[in-house]
Amino acid sequence: MGKLNGTMNKLTVTAYVKRGRIKKMIAGIFAGKKGEGFVDTALKILISVVVGALLLAGLYALFKDTILPTLTQRIQNLFNYQG
Known about the structure:
This protein is mainly α.
């Protein structure tokens, strides 16, 4: 029975120490004053969405007005070969 009590005491002390470390770590996280906040992250996401939308709109306009008509004309010329 003495061996079991020693093991239980060791487990209890280990759990108590780990709980103290975790508690200290969480307190440090909440007390930290990093510059990265929710507003900064939201602003980054908003900027990336706007830039992505502008790039997609530019590519769409390029394909619609420049590339597709030229490609269509080339394909028609290829099939209308009279040689």
